[in-house]
Write a structure and sequence with these properties.
The protein has 137 residues and is an alpha+beta fold. It folds into 2 domains: 72 residues, ACT domain (Alpha-Beta Plaits); 54 residues, Alpha-Beta Plaits (2-Layer Sandwich), CATH 3.30.70.20. It is 20% helix and 33% strand. Bound molecules: iron/sulfur cluster (2 copies).
Length: 137
Protein backbone atom coordinates (compact mmCIF):
# COMPACT_ATOMS: atom_id res chain seq x y z
CA UNK A 1 0.00 0.00 0.00
CA UNK A 2 0.95 3.66 -0.47
CA UNK A 3 0.31 6.52 1.92
CA UNK A 4 1.36 10.15 2.01
CA UNK A 5 2.56 11.84 5.17
CA UNK A 6 3.81 15.20 6.33
CA UNK A 7 6.87 14.95 8.62
CA UNK A 8 7.71 17.97 10.77
CA UNK A 9 11.20 18.16 12.32
CA UNK A 10 12.78 20.19 15.05
CA UNK A 11 16.25 21.61 14.21
CA UNK A 12 17.98 18.85 16.23
CA UNK A 13 16.42 16.12 14.06
CA UNK A 14 17.40 17.50 10.65
CA UNK A 15 20.57 15.41 10.46
CA UNK A 16 18.84 12.05 11.20
CA UNK A 17 19.35 9.41 8.43
CA UNK A 18 15.63 8.79 8.05
CA UNK A 19 15.48 7.40 4.57
CA UNK A 20 18.08 4.68 5.02
CA UNK A 21 16.59 3.68 8.40
CA UNK A 22 13.09 3.25 6.93
CA UNK A 23 14.32 1.30 3.92
CA UNK A 24 16.70 -0.99 5.86
CA UNK A 25 14.71 -1.63 9.03
CA UNK A 26 11.10 -1.60 7.88
CA UNK A 27 11.39 -2.52 4.19
CA UNK A 28 9.48 0.60 3.25
CA UNK A 29 10.19 2.63 0.12
CA UNK A 30 10.20 6.36 0.66
CA UNK A 31 9.55 8.90 -2.05
CA UNK A 32 10.19 12.49 -0.98
CA UNK A 33 7.57 14.61 -2.76
CA UNK A 34 8.48 17.95 -1.26
CA UNK A 35 11.23 19.10 1.11
CA UNK A 36 11.60 22.27 3.11
CA UNK A 37 14.49 21.42 5.41
CA UNK A 38 17.37 23.57 6.59
CA UNK A 39 20.03 22.94 9.18
CA UNK A 40 19.37 25.06 12.25
CA UNK A 41 15.67 25.67 11.71
CA UNK A 42 14.05 22.24 11.32
CA UNK A 43 11.70 21.62 8.47
CA UNK A 44 8.92 19.75 6.75
CA UNK A 45 8.92 16.83 4.33
CA UNK A 46 6.01 15.48 2.33
CA UNK A 47 6.70 11.81 1.65
CA UNK A 48 4.98 8.84 0.11
CA UNK A 49 5.68 5.55 1.87
CA UNK A 50 5.14 2.25 0.06
CA UNK A 51 5.11 -1.10 1.86
CA UNK A 52 3.01 -3.61 3.75
CA UNK A 53 0.35 -2.13 6.05
CA UNK A 54 2.13 -3.34 9.19
CA UNK A 55 5.46 -1.96 7.94
CA UNK A 56 3.90 1.48 7.39
CA UNK A 57 2.43 1.41 10.90
CA UNK A 58 5.79 0.47 12.43
CA UNK A 59 7.55 3.16 10.40
CA UNK A 60 5.16 5.85 11.62
CA UNK A 61 5.57 4.61 15.19
CA UNK A 62 9.35 4.83 14.89
CA UNK A 63 9.18 8.31 13.35
CA UNK A 64 6.95 9.47 16.20
CA UNK A 65 9.36 7.95 18.74
CA UNK A 66 12.24 9.95 17.27
CA UNK A 67 10.28 13.14 17.90
CA UNK A 68 9.12 13.77 14.35
CA UNK A 69 5.51 14.95 14.11
CA UNK A 70 3.81 12.73 11.52
CA UNK A 71 0.49 13.61 9.87
CA UNK A 72 -1.19 11.41 7.35
CA UNK A 73 -2.43 13.24 4.27
CA UNK A 74 -5.95 11.95 3.95
CA UNK A 75 -7.12 13.76 0.83
CA UNK A 76 -5.71 15.14 -2.36
CA UNK A 77 -5.75 18.68 -3.71
CA UNK A 78 -9.29 19.97 -4.22
CA UNK A 79 -9.84 21.75 -7.53
CA UNK A 80 -13.06 23.46 -8.66
CA UNK A 81 -12.39 22.75 -12.31
CA UNK A 82 -15.77 23.96 -13.58
CA UNK A 83 -14.92 27.56 -12.56
CA UNK A 84 -11.50 27.62 -14.25
CA UNK A 85 -10.99 30.46 -16.76
CA UNK A 86 -7.87 28.80 -18.25
CA UNK A 87 -5.63 31.78 -17.53
CA UNK A 88 -2.62 29.48 -16.98
CA UNK A 89 -1.29 31.30 -13.89
CA UNK A 90 -1.16 28.10 -11.84
CA UNK A 91 0.98 26.26 -14.41
CA UNK A 92 3.87 28.67 -13.79
CA UNK A 93 4.28 27.55 -10.16
CA UNK A 94 3.68 23.81 -10.61
CA UNK A 95 7.16 22.36 -11.02
CA UNK A 96 6.11 18.66 -11.27
CA UNK A 97 3.88 19.66 -14.25
CA UNK A 98 0.72 18.36 -12.61
CA UNK A 99 -0.92 21.47 -14.07
CA UNK A 100 -0.40 22.22 -17.74
CA UNK A 101 -2.21 23.71 -20.73
CA UNK A 102 -3.28 21.33 -23.48
CA UNK A 103 -2.99 22.13 -27.18
CA UNK A 104 -6.31 24.06 -27.03
CA UNK A 105 -5.06 26.15 -24.06
CA UNK A 106 -7.33 24.36 -21.65
CA UNK A 107 -5.93 23.59 -18.20
CA UNK A 108 -5.25 19.94 -17.39
CA UNK A 109 -4.72 18.68 -13.83
CA UNK A 110 -2.95 15.33 -13.38
CA UNK A 111 -3.37 14.26 -9.71
CA UNK A 112 -0.78 11.49 -10.12
CA UNK A 113 1.94 14.12 -10.58
CA UNK A 114 0.75 16.43 -7.80
CA UNK A 115 3.10 16.61 -4.79
CA UNK A 116 0.68 18.68 -2.65
CA UNK A 117 3.10 21.61 -2.38
CA UNK A 118 0.19 24.06 -2.31
CA UNK A 119 1.77 26.69 -4.55
CA UNK A 120 -1.22 26.71 -6.89
CA UNK A 121 -3.49 27.63 -3.97
CA UNK A 122 -1.92 31.09 -3.84
CA UNK A 123 -1.34 31.37 -7.59
CA UNK A 124 -4.91 30.99 -8.79
CA UNK A 125 -6.71 34.36 -9.01
CA UNK A 126 -10.05 32.53 -8.85
CA UNK A 127 -9.06 30.68 -5.65
CA UNK A 128 -10.03 27.34 -7.14
CA UNK A 129 -7.58 25.17 -5.20
CA UNK A 130 -7.55 24.10 -1.58
CA UNK A 131 -5.35 21.55 0.13
CA UNK A 132 -6.57 18.55 2.04
CA UNK A 133 -6.60 18.18 5.79
CA UNK A 134 -4.00 16.18 7.65
CA UNK A 135 -4.56 13.97 10.65
CA UNK A 136 -2.16 12.88 13.32
CA UNK A 137 -0.67 9.49 12.44
S1 LIG B 1 -0.24 21.41 -5.18
FE1 LIG B 1 -0.63 22.55 -7.07
S2 LIG B 1 1.35 23.46 -7.65
FE2 LIG B 1 1.76 21.83 -6.16
S3 LIG B 1 2.16 20.02 -7.40
FE3 LIG B 1 -0.02 19.97 -6.91
S4 LIG B 1 -1.02 20.96 -8.61
FE4 LIG B 1 1.15 21.50 -8.73
S1 LIG C 1 -4.85 29.84 -12.17
FE1 LIG C 1 -6.94 29.15 -11.63
S2 LIG C 1 -8.25 30.02 -13.21
FE2 LIG C 1 -6.14 30.13 -13.99
S3 LIG C 1 -5.83 28.21 -15.15
FE3 LIG C 1 -5.16 27.79 -13.06
S4 LIG C 1 -6.98 26.94 -12.04
FE4 LIG C 1 -7.70 27.95 -13.90
Amino acid sequence: MKKRYTLRFSPTLVEQPLVSKLVRTYDVDINILNADVASGRGGKLIVELTGAEEALKESVLWLNQTGIVVSEMVKELNFQEDRCINCGACTAVCSPKALYMDKDWKLVYDPDLCVLCGLCVQACPMQLFSLSNEREA
